[in-house]
Design goal:
Elements lengths: L1 H50 L1 H6 L2 H15 L5 E10 L4 E11 L4 E11 L10 E8 L2 E9 L19 E10 L6 E2 L13 E9 L2
Parallel strand pairs: 4-8
Antiparallel strand pairs: 1-2, 2-3, 4-5, 6-7, 6-8
Helix pairs in contact: 1-3
């Protein structure tokens, strides 16, 4: 009987230690995943803010916040409940301060991790003195290609100086195709709002004449 009790106590201790180790490892893994997903979502949101002048013109806090939430959830695969607090958002200054809390089921009770990060677009630095390539295309043909220092804005001198027009179509502007395809049609004025932080590809867009 005594040996049986000792064996049961030993088994219980092993189970408790195993649960404890599993709980700690699970929390560490989820914290790392949360930090990584938060970084990616912030980076992606600031990318969109940089290349999409609509935000800068409308200064719509709600759109920036909604984009961050979408970008965060796209990267998240955890079976958990998330609470996202947008603490500060200012599209004009390129400021986004966010806190995310995650609650998840574990062997005993509910586990929780959280992370808070702030990003300021104006603080974008180029410590490696990187240059990015900008291409302006007409269908499959590159009509102009330039290299621009990271963090600089597109200037009028970078734009193709002459765009061929036909008797049936008129040139309307440039549509971004890379790093991601955009529905925004950039004019000569709005394209000057873009800060270059990656390689960019623009496609000439024409509209048929009536």
């Amino acid at each position: 009987m005594k040996n049986a009790i000792i064996a049961l106590i030993g088994i219980a201790m092993v189970i408790m230690v195993t649960v404890g180790i599993n709980t700690v490892e699970n929390k560490t893994m989820r914290q790392n995943e949360l930090d990584s997903n938060l970084d990616k979502a912030l980076e992606r949101t600031m990318e969109i803010l940089t290349i999409d002048p609509v935000y800068q013109i409308s200064k719509n806090d709600t759109e920036v916040a909604a984009d961050f939430i979408e970008n965060f959830l796209v990267n998240t695969t955890s079976d958990a409940t998330f609470k996202i607090d947008i603490i500060t958002v200012d599209p004009e200054k390129g400021l986004l301060d966010v806190q995310v809390s995650e609650s998840y089921a574990q062997v005993i009770g509910t586990g929780k991790v959280s992370a808070r990060k702030t990003v300021i677009l104006d603080d974008w630095e180029n410590p490696d003195n990187t240059y990015f390539t900008i291409r302006f295309c007409l269908d499959d043909k590159i009509i102009k290609q330039v290299n621009i220092h990271g963090g600089d804005k597109i200037t009028k001198g970078i734009l193709p100086q002459s765009i061929a027009e036909s008797e049936t179509a008129v040139f309307k502007g440039w549509r971004m195709m890379m790093p991601q395809e955009s529905d925004v049609l950039y004019t000569e004025d709005s394209i000057l709002n873009l800060t270059v932080t990656s390689d960019l590809v623009f496609q000439a867009i024409y509209q048929e004449k009536n």
